[in-house]
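Mods, move this if it's the wrong board.
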Amino acid sequence: MKKKTLKNMSCILCILLLIISVTGCGNDQNTGNTEDNNQKEFVLREDMKGNKLQYFSMDGVKINFPETLGDLVDSFGESAKRIKIETALEYEDRLLFDSENPDQQSKIEADSTKLCKLTYYRNDSEYHTFSVAVINDSNKSIFVTDAPVQEITFYSGDGEYDEYFSTMLKTIVINDEIRMDSTYKKEDLIAYLGEDNVTMMGESTIMFYNGSGFNCWYFQYDKESEIITQAVTQGFNNDI
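Not the wrong board. Structure tokens:
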């Protein structure tokens, strides 16, 4: 029961962040939040402009943020023994894609969004799992690997979602700096991004407006240890 509860919490969080960003960052990519909602405007200092957070690394493989889910799968290359994509919701938990049988992938219905669980296997016992939200805004169904990526969530592996998003590999590094390894802290993140470029949301979330492409980032941290436990990046157009 605990495992199912944590799984549902994680899915709900991702969906809520997706909704928040549509009404926040997604509406104005040039200025971030406006003065109408009494939040500060995001103004990047010069050295943070130009899509600063633009790639992540796993097992030494540099991966640019993808346009489609298939781009992401292809980016892992030979470093992955196997890649599985499954639905991430309790009531429809099923396999969508398996690199061992790529011709048997599922489709996503027209005008729909789907939250997926992607598992990268280095070998049979070492793997890393993170969630990816994709969208099909066309009027016909498309293969899951053709779906544009709207959101990617990275997990440190030792957070409250560890039971579902089991993490054996702790090798994800964003921009060669932000280490999702259960040691990287809030103060490290703010020092890297710049205090003037981030906004605190609630008690344990840091928001960063990236300026282009995957333009909104939400970093969650543990309130006691201040270790970064999740990084969520969101993009709302594919003309990047």
